[in-house]
Amino acid sequence: MQLALLATTPMQERSAVQARIFAAISEADKYPWGEAFTLANEGVTGGVMIPFSGVYPIMMHTFVGDGTTTTVVLDETPAGDHTATPQAVFVYNATGAAALVPTTDFTLVPATKTLTFQAGALPAAAEVHVIYYAYIP
Fold first, then answer.
1. Of the candidates 17, 20, 35, 127, which lies 20 to 30 Å from 69 by C-alpha distance?
2. Mean pLDDT lowest for which of 3-17, 52-66, 71-85?
3. Which class for 117: exposed (0-12), middle (13-18), buried (19 or more C-beta within 10 A)?
4. Distance between CA 45 and CA 33 in Å, rounded?
């Protein structure tokens, strides 16, 4: 990925600076968790990274299901819940290469850092899930 600073507001002591940044994102041949794109599963052998940006840092959390665990406690305090706009959390079934749908497949309570899988989206044994979320440092 390439980043270039396009413009900033004038800098003043003890004041916020706003900046415009250009980002050129390269195509990848693997998901962030290392699984390769395949013609059979995705219909392509490459793709762009997951579009996720915001004012908060981004964290990636992985979870391997056991078929019974319904909740995951995240390491950091999320910047929003499953209803946040723009979306503050993305959950992917890395084993099945599918995105989970907020509210339908999972809910998130930032105060307790707890993500709960809903009925029908419970991770099966050995099924890997990847959770991307914006967090409050």
1. 35
2. 3-17
3. buried
4. 15
34, two tokens: 């290392």
Tell me how long the chain is: 137
Query: What band does 21 get if pLDDT is binned at 50, 70 and 90?
Result: low
pLDDT of residue 109: 95
Q: What are φ and ψ of residue 22, in 5° steps? A: -95, 130
Other C-beta atoms within 10 Å of 74: how many?
19
What domains, with CATH codes, occur in the chain? 1-49 (no CATH), 56-137 (2.60.40)
Q: Which two tokens stand for residue 2?
A: 């390439």
Q: Residue 129 in contact with residue 49, Cβ under 8 Å? A: no
Residue 64: strand pairing partners: 128
Can you give the pTM of this predicted structure?
0.65
119 Cβ neighbours under 8 A, 6+ residues apart: none
Distance CA 47, CA 35 (A): 12
